[in-house]
């Protein structure tokens, strides 16, 4: 893992510190989670995990496809 240096406005730092304290995490952990979410990793994992979950189900209420 590499380190970066980023300049953020004071209000953003205060917000990060508040969120980190509320969640019991470090400021760096909150930033890592934010970057992952921004990249779509969290969402993508959920979509890939559950995409097509009903395709193997025999559902009598399913609308017939042409």
Report on the architecture of this protein.
This protein has 66 residues and is mostly helical. It has a domain at 10-48. The chain is built from three helices and no strands. The chain has helices at residues 10-23, 27-39, 41-50. It is elongated and about 55 Å long. The termini are far apart. Residues 2-39 form the Ribbon-helix-helix protein CopG domain. This is Ribbon-helix-helix domain-containing protein.
Topology at a glance:
Elements: H1 10-23, H2 27-39, H3 41-50
Helix pairs in contact: 1-2
Please outline what is shown here.
This protein is an all-alpha fold. Helix content is 56%, strand content 0%. It has helices spanning 10-23, 27-39, 41-50.
Number of helices: 3
User: Could you state the order of secondary-structure elements as H and E?
Assistant: HHH
The rounded Rg comes to: 20 Å
Sheet-strand content, in percent, reads under 5%
Helix content: 55-70%
SS-based structural class? mainly alpha
* Gap between N and C termini: 51 Å
Overall 3D form: elongated
What is the residue-mean pLDDT, rounded to a whole number? 80
Low-confidence stretches: none
Largest sheet: none
Beta-strand segment tally: 0
InterPro entries: Arc_rbn_hlx_hlx, CopG, Ribbon_hlx_hlx
Organism: Qipengyuania qiaonensis
Pfam families: RHH_1
Protein name: Ribbon-helix-helix domain-containing protein
């Amino acid at each position: 893992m590499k380190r970066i240096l980023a300049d953020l406005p004071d209000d953003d730092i205060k917000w990060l510190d508040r969120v980190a304290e509320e969640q019991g995490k470090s400021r760096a952990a909150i930033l890592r989670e934010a970057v992952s979410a921004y990249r779509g990793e969290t969402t993508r994992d959920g979509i890939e995990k559950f995409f097509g979950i009903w395709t193997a189900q025999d559902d009598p209420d399913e609308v017939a496809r042409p």
